[in-house]
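ok, trying the design again with the full structure, not the truncated one.
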């Protein structure tokens, strides 16, 4: 069994089990008091990582939605100015199967999906990591590869519990390796 050691920093991404659905001001306050900011960025070995609260791209207080969109826009522009490729991390993927699929519980609303993907691609996002769908899927939208990996709880595609180790190389190629959890 392969052993892993985590080294800070650790980035958390808010999901539907962390916040009420729809998102409320009280739920956001509670989340932030326990886990900290629900929008984070960091430089990581020449890449720019953006962790956004995709729960706010659904039903949430308008002021929170506006603030989050502004932070995302500013962060993407900063990464572009710095010439850094971007890894986007959210709980809800932009789409599950194809970009113009109808709205459903497992994807972002079609009303913002195309715009969001276009803005991300224009500003250097090349990998988008997501959770939420509890199955393993890899698909593309333009230059962006969207990855959903196994969970450490229950997978709807009957894959074993585990996680994906993403290794990104200087030229933005990546490997996406499955690591199974030890079974008792």
């Amino acid at each position: 069994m392969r052993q892993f050691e985590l080294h800070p920093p650790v980035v958390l991404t808010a999901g539907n089990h962390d916040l009420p659905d729809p998102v409320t001001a009280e739920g956001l306050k509670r989340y932030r008091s326990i886990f900290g900011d629900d929008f984070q960025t960091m430089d990581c070995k020449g890449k720019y990582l953006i962790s956004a609260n995709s729960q706010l791209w659904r039903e949430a207080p308008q002021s929170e939605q506006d603030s989050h969109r502004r932070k995302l826009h500013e962060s993407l522009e900063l990464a572009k100015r710095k010439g850094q490729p971007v890894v986007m991390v959210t709980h809800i993927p932009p789409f599950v199967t194809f970009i113009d699929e109808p709205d459903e519980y497992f994807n972002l609303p079609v009303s913002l999906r195309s715009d969001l993907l276009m803005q991300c691609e224009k500003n250097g996002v090349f990998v988008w990591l997501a959770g939420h769908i509890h199955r393993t899927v890899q698909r593309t939208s333009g230059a962006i590869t969207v990855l959903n990996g196994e969970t450490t709880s229950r997978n709807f595609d009957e894959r074993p519990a585990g996680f994906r180790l993403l290794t990104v190389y200087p030229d933005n190629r990546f490997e996406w390796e499955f690591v199974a959890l030890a079974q008792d």
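Keeping the full-length input from now on. The first strand starts at residue 40 and ends at 44.
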